[in-house]
């Protein structure tokens, strides 16, 4: 196993991790911004109000994108296994 293969595997691992985490992170950020706008408009400055909407948003995004995420992860795993088998 040469250095370029290790770098390629590391790059693909980071890319896959970011791809899988992005929908949930974006949903949490979007809900956080919306709740913050509502808090500013209503002058309610309680920090605990943001947690429940963010948790629900991340949960629903995870629920709806789980099938896609599993397919991406399965494809990545097959690619890694193929690379390992081809170098042995």
Describe this structure in words.
With 88 residues, the chain is an all-alpha fold. It has one domain (3-87). 88% of the residues lie in helices and 0% in strands. It is built from 2 helices and no strands. The chain has helices at 3-42, 51-87. The model has no long low-confidence stretch (mean pLDDT 91).
Reading the helices and strands in chain order gives: HH
Uncertain segments are: none
Q: Please state the oligomeric state of the protein chains shown.
A: single chain
Query: Radius of gyration from the CA trace?
Result: 19 Å
Number of strands: 0
Structural class: mainly alpha
Helix fraction, binned, reads: over 70%
- How much of the sequence lies in strands comes to under 5%
Query: Mean pLDDT, rounded to whole units?
Result: 91
By DSSP (H or I, 4+ residues per run), the number of helices equals 2
Beginning-to-end CA distance, first to last residue: 8 Å
Quickly count the domains.
1
| Morphology | elongated
Layout of helices and strands, plus pairs?
Blueprint lengths: L2 H40 L8 H37 L1
Helix pairs in contact: 1-2
Keywords:
2 helices, mainly alpha, 88 residues, elongated
Please outline what is shown here.
The protein is mainly alpha-helical. It contains two helices and no strands.
